[in-house]
């Protein structure tokens, strides 16, 4: 007579069933979270790579964020310079009329020039979010002071005079990578600004009666030069904005690429996991059935 026992089979069946149940629970957790692991540590060999990719996304986000702030400053500077050109163009009309004799006695020429000078100075003292944009590295105070002093009233003949300027020569820039830096700033002591302020000051102080055509002619020439130079400044600002926009667009595309790589590592393939769940469920049901049958066996069934 041989002795038969089902205890070993039963224990093996229970162990197998518990392992399958654990696998099934893990798959269900992946389906609910859509994550391959609960923590970086559980990503095993991919942990360092995920951390590196996410750090790169953070760096890129900072470039985009800072780039957006700089873009706003450039747009503000561009709009201010555009308004400066308008001020000078209107003043140019007044000068042309006075010089040609169409404005008898240069009526209100001094007053109009003074108003234009103050308007120009206000534009040069543009402040955005507590930062003065035309003072170079000096951003906490207005860069232009046309009071007397520091800026003496201009009378012909004149020479370049930037005593009105209260900033420095630093040109603003933004670093977009370890190897690239984009300059975007313009300072109010630039030649175009200086000539504009000098021309307007000449007009504000020139004799109206008799009319001082020598001063008005000098002012007219300076206005023409100032307008041309301010338009060049606008073009430079536009080019900086375009370069920065390209950088921001490139960083956003780069982030999408990095996010996709991180997602591939961290997130599950739902279709594949659903298939796996169905397979494990079938194994689990088979294990339940086998365990139930083994548990009903008796020694007498084999005797």
Describe this protein with a few key phrases:
mainly alpha; two-stranded antiparallel ribbon; 64% helix
Structure description:
The protein has 303 residues and is mainly α. Helices cover 64% and strands 3% of the residues. The chain has six helices and four strands; from the N terminus they run αααββββααα. The termini are close together. Residues 299-303 have low confidence and may be disordered.
In short:
This protein has 6 helices and 4 strands.
Order of helices and strands: HHHEEEEHHH
The total strand number stands at: 4
Q: Helix coverage percent of residues?
A: 55-70%
Structural class: mainly alpha
Largest sheet: 2 strands, antiparallel
Rg is 39 Å
Number of helices: 6
Mean pLDDT: 84
Low-confidence stretches: 299-303
The percent range for strand residues is under 5%
First and last CA, distance: 8 Å
Judging from the principal axes of the Cα atoms, what is the shape? rod-shaped
